[in-house]
Amino acid sequence: MEKRSVYTNKLLPYLLLAPQLVITLVFFYWPASQAVWMSFRIEDAFGISTEFVGFENYVTLFGQRSYYESMWTTLVFSLAVTILAMSFSLLLAVMADKQIRGGSVYRTLLIWPYAVAPAIAGVLWLFMFQPSLGMIGRGLIAAGVPWNPMLNGDHALLLVILAAAWKQISYNFLFFLAGLQSIPKSLIEAAAIDGAKPARRFWTIIFPMLSPTTFFLLVVNIVYVFFDTFGIIDAITHGGPAKATETLVFKVYSDGRLGGDLGGSAAQSVVLMVIVIALTAIQFRYVERKVTY
């Protein structure tokens, strides 16, 4: 005989869901709807006068060359940060998963950088790579490298890529390590007995079994690059030099908060939201097919 549990309190599930639903509505759907409505209007910087203009903000936006340049910068930035952060975190997780003396201490130290705020992380990297004051920056110049992220756009973009990737490595490391520890050791030992080398064991057993974790982190890292790297860019370069590090999220702030174009900034935020949703949907539609659960 099968026993079924029956919950007589039909209101309890809704009460348990209510806090999360309220938070989602207040902090996501309501601001998103306000941004969509604002994108159809022209509003002065003080919010005194507004005018409904339809899709004029979007037409103006897609007619700007600087917007496409920000798109290209965001594409390069997102690919570089995602690849670096996920690759190095996986390497560190594989090394930390080994039975070594003081392994728990190493794991704790590798997780700590995630607690650093993005703006603080940006300031730390700026101090290290500042050409006249930073220890690493001065070392590069002494070695004959013409390093100057204050004036060279490529150097500035490289610096914010490294800082953003470093900030995310700890988060990825935590999930990769948990995924590695959930893999049955008997499978790896059986492959080793059969004569499989470490590299072959990794690519044929370990990495395929990490595919759910890798897919999850891929989605999270894309969202992180598009939104959560604003503080790093603002602290290091302020979008410069010559807008070389102005990503889409920083351009929303620059045009809206600094430039006073609230309608155009809202249109940019709507486009950015659509891009991220589309990228996430594409990943779930095509990338998830290769995930082995």
Automatic annotation (TrEMBL):
The chain crosses the membrane at residues 12-30, 75-96, 108-128, 156-180, 201-227, 266-287. InterPro entries: MetI-like, MetI-like_sf, UgpAE/MalFG_permease. It holds the Pfam family BPD_transp_1. This is sn-glycerol-3-phosphate transport system permease protein UgpA. It is found in: Cell inner membrane; Cell membrane. GO terms for biological process: transmembrane transport. Keywords: Cell inner membrane, Cell membrane, Membrane, Transmembrane, Transmembrane helix, Transport. The keyword Transmembrane helix applies. Belongs to the binding-protein-dependent transport system permease family. The complex is composed of two ATP-binding proteins (UgpC), two transmembrane proteins (UgpA and UgpE) and a solute-binding protein (UgpB). One of its GO terms (cellular component) is plasma membrane. It is a multi-pass membrane protein. Part of the ABC transporter complex UgpBAEC involved in sn-glycerol-3-phosphate (G3P) import. Probably responsible for the translocation of the substrate across the membrane. Residues 71-283 form the ABC transmembrane type-1 domain. It comes from the Bacteria. CDD domains: TM_PBP2.
